[in-house]
Amino acid sequence: MTVFDVLNLAGTIAFATSGAFVAMSKKFDPFGVFIVAFVTALGGGTLRDILIGSSPVGWMKDTTYVYVITVTVVLAIIFRNKLKHLSKSLFLFDSIGLGIFTIIGTEIGIQANFSPVISIALGTMTAAFGGVIRDILCNEIPVIFRKEIYATASIAGAIAFIILHYYNVNNNITYVITTLIIIIIRLIAVRFKLSLPTFYTIKKNEL
Amino acid sequence: MTVFDVLNLAGTIAFATSGAFVAMSKKFDPFGVFIVAFVTALGGGTLRDILIGSSPVGWMKDTTYVYVITVTVVLAIIFRNKLKHLSKSLFLFDSIGLGIFTIIGTEIGIQANFSPVISIALGTMTAAFGGVIRDILCNEIPVIFRKEIYATASIAGAIAFIILHYYNVNNNITYVITTLIIIIIRLIAVRFKLSLPTFYTIKKNEL
Amino acid sequence: MTVFDVLNLAGTIAFATSGAFVAMSKKFDPFGVFIVAFVTALGGGTLRDILIGSSPVGWMKDTTYVYVITVTVVLAIIFRNKLKHLSKSLFLFDSIGLGIFTIIGTEIGIQANFSPVISIALGTMTAAFGGVIRDILCNEIPVIFRKEIYATASIAGAIAFIILHYYNVNNNITYVITTLIIIIIRLIAVRFKLSLPTFYTIKKNEL
Asked: Euclidean distance between the first and final Cα of chain A, in Å?
């Protein structure tokens, strides 16, 4: 088990926890909580595998993640009142997950000889689209379309990854730098309440 | 045409009817009613086929189901006011559908040498996720995440199926027992208004 | 670059613009606006490719469309207040897109030896389901399930395409007739405010 695997698991646990909490806040039953946690953690990678035609999708071949998510959901339900006070740890985990999942997706794109722009899209999809599916299942507008620098951090990391890879920088260094870029952008964005501008002047009834 | 085919058709018709009624209650036009009926009946199996990489998906190769659903939708629209009084028959059909679709999905998983836990997931997905996509298309929170013992009945049936299959029980007996387990669990759950507990203590603004 | 390519691009631009405007009206940030524009333009074709097992999906192999959509989104954001006055041009573009995308999807179905009914479904899916995914991402009930003759126009065009193809009519003539049928049906429907009937008598609490 490498450092990479450990970080990957940390990301999976963080994403599953995030999904479980959103589902509990919506008063879902344990089945619903599990499903939402599952798609939050694995939905982005699943969509990536479907789009590139890698089948069966990853979690069907290696069930480790299914078990990890199951344990995470059970613990999240049991300790739901205590975990609220761990929001800073969860934020850190979530940022690690965003970083790691971006790297995994981008690297899969490069290995499969997709163009850089598609590889970046695969990285960001892997990292950020589990949350989109989570929000759709919870009947919410996907939060990453409106708030915070989230997908933007993933895109920046994926671009850095592509550049470092192009210059044959050592893999481990590339992983660390990419993840750090993503975490730092998120920290700065949340600390200073930065978000991308939106365009309020269009009213719906004007369309 | 075997007993299995008959039950499969009964399940398809029940699911399509359920989808058609939800769509009509949302004031969808006939095209919308058809699409929602279609995804309710075939959405779970379609998702399963996509995830395991079986393409083209089932209903593209055998259009029987497309025609069955079309006729079902036309009849549901024509007899919409009379069908309301058939809610008990519809409930029974729907439970049969849940049972049959669980068996189909679980068996596909076993045949393709997936692990038991993935096979159970495929069975439940086949049976219960058409309804999830139906609710998403209708802009509702998926009802199976919040109400009734529904997916839980499917999971229980899929586990029974795996066990009976492991002990080489005759297929027809396995089918009957699995379907009966699912129908009985649902009947008991609805009769006694049982549902899984939810976790109200988490407020959304506490996240 | 053929006339077909030009029309295809016009359709892509129109669909992307439509997606961008809906996303801006929902106050999405630029990332969200891009994603919604992207799925509106390419979501239908992506779903088609996934269902028939054509992988990787089209836009991953030819990134032209990614760049066209990116430029479209940037222009839509910059000129958002001026474009409002272009609603008639946008309507025409959108109808062209509906026509072209219907043809592309139906032809792919025929080439892959799918039955006529599945080919029609693929055509309509290619043309109309980007809008469905757009509406789901924006947490709205898909507009094509309730308003206007939209998918119906696509279905009519796809049927015409199948018939003309069956009688070996010259391809270019088939393309023109099919697109004209779709555009004319839409023009008439919008001009006379035609829509399919809905079935109001069913109340949700009666189910």
From this structure: 54
